[in-house]
Structure formats: structure tokens, C-alpha cells
Design a protein that fits this description.
By secondary structure, the protein is an all-alpha fold. The protein is built from 9 helices and no strands. InterPro entries: Homeodomain-like_sf, HTH-type_TetR-like_transc_reg, HTH_TetR, Tet_transcr_reg_TetR-rel_C_sf, TetR_C.
Length: 190
């Protein structure tokens, strides 16, 4: 034996605990719990709060990751060969997923306003969804569709979505997604 010691790297992260924490946080957010704390998340997940801090720097970061995981759209970005159809498929799937997670997303947005780490997670999620829609527009341009103002088209799509999430102005249903897709296809192509 050489006498050399292996440096201590701390306790290993447990993936099952991480999943339990995310599920607990999502459950608390979805039910609109007021006063969510690291302690309430830990109790709901059946872990110690030090386990939470091994994975996330703040309460906001864990809440946002839970919200993003619940709202993530599993369907691939469509490529039907038609801008209108691609927008329709993408927005219908997006609205359907968001409609099932409205409360969770509203609470996640509120958390992001209070916590920089949470805001970073929400921004990464928004950027990834925007990039997916930008891919649809890019493919349409490659097929010869002249997109008038790509950034404005992206803002319009997600502006409607977030407005309806935050203010419940109107439904996030399939018909609204289809109308938005048709309007965006018309305006994007000028």
C-alpha cells in the first residue's frame, strides 16, 4: 500500500433522489402551493434539504427545472414540407402541452422573477423552444419561402402563448393553435 489517499469528492449524487425532488417540486407547483421552500420540497420528496443543494443552487432553480421538465415537448420538430403544416403541428403540440401545465408554468415564471438561477433555467428553456421554431422557419426559407421578419414571427408565436399562460385571456386549445399557425404562415411569407 502506498499510503496515498484518494481525495474526498463528497457524497455522490443519487439520480433517484433527483427525480423524486423534481416530481415533488412539480407537484407543489402544479397545485399552486404558496410559500414553497426547500424544506417543503425536501419533505415532499422524502429527502434532506442538503440533497437538494447538491443538485441545485437555489429553490428557484429546482422549481424551474421541474417546470421545464413537465412542459418539455417530446415530439420532434415537424418537417412536413409545408410551412403552414409545420407551424400547425408545432403549435398544436406546444399549446396542448402548455395547457396541461399552465399553473406550473405561471408559478415557474413568478419564481424566475425572484431568483437568478431560476431565471437562467427558464431562459434556456425559452431559447430552446425558440430555436425549434426557428428551425421550421429556416427550412421554409431553404424551400424558397421568403420569410419577411423571422424574429417578429418567433415573438408573435411565443407572445400569444405566454400572454395566455399568464393572463388567461383566452384558451390554449387546438383551435387557437391552428388559427395562430395560419396567421403566422400568412404573415411570415408576406
Amino acid at each position: 500500500m502506498t499510503g496515498a489517499r484518494r481525495p474526498h469528492t463528497g457524497r455522490r449524487r443519487n439520480e433517484a433522489a433527483r427525480e423524486a425532488i423534481l416530481a415533488a417540486a412539480a407537484g407543489l407547483l402544479a397545485h399552486g402551493e404558496v410559500g414553497i421552500s426547500v424544506d417543503t420540497i425536501a419533505a415532499a420528496a422524502g429527502v434532506g434539504k442538503q440533497t437538494i443543494y447538491r443538485w441545485w443552487p437555489s429553490k428557484g432553480a429546482v422549481l424551474l427545472e421541474a417546470a421545464v421538465a413537465q412542459a418539455e415537448i417530446q415530439a420532434p420538430v415537424p418537417d412536413t414540407g409545408s410551412l403552414g403544416q409545420d407551424l400547425d403541428v408545432f403549435l398544436v403540440a406546444t399549446f396542448r402541452t402548455v395547457a396541461a401545465n399552465k399553473s406550473l408554468l405561471r408559478n415557474a415564471m413568478a419564481e424566475a422573477l425572484r431568483d437568478d438561477a431560476a431565471a437562467k433555467v427558464l431562459k434556456e428553456f425559452a431559447v430552446s423552444r425558440r430555436a425549434a421554431l426557428a428551425e421550421i422557419l429556416e427550412r421554409a426559407q431553404q424551400r424558397g419561402v421568403a420569410i419577411e421578419d423571422r424574429d417578429l414571427t418567433l415573438d408573435q408565436a411565443f407572445g400569444v402563448l405566454w400572454y395566455r399562460i399568464l393572463f388567461e385571456h383566452d384558451e390554449l386549445d387546438e383551435q387557437a393553435a391552428e388559427r395562430l399557425a395560419a396567421a403566422l404562415a400568412r404573415s411570415a411569407a408576406g
